[in-house]
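Hi V.,

You were right to ask for the full record rather than a summary. Here it is.
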Amino acid sequence: MWDANGRTPDFETGTPLAGYFIRRVFEELADAPEAEGVILGTSQVLMVSAFDAESGSGTYVAIDSFEGEIGGRQGSISFWHTSTADHGAFLAAEAQLKVVPGSGTGQLAGARGWGRILNRGEAEVLELTLEFADEQDAEDAEVDIAIGKLEPPHG
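Predicted structure:
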């Protein structure tokens, strides 16, 4: 499911460093909470992690380049996110997700936003709040979506 880049540091720490390339498919979950919109599409992700599977401790940072539909708007956008676990406990207060400024194209141009990625059973759920420069009232468009599956990269 992950395409490791095959590079490792010249020394070890308690949390081995690894880089990955991931393809994600965004699809709506049947049991998703009521939201003002959904995210449908795909993203390509560059991810770096420092994680020790034995202790369940580590962190990751990643950038998704997404193409599809968010809250009824078509286009592409990039967002970065990070999360940390300490001895198997997810540290929610440290999780972050932000839209990369100026990354939106098409109907997603001018988007600003933030959110977080949460584990929910077999799926990950992306909670995202977006604001658009073209909205006069600047009302937020809150969007919940499940990251349905991860696909290995193609050739």
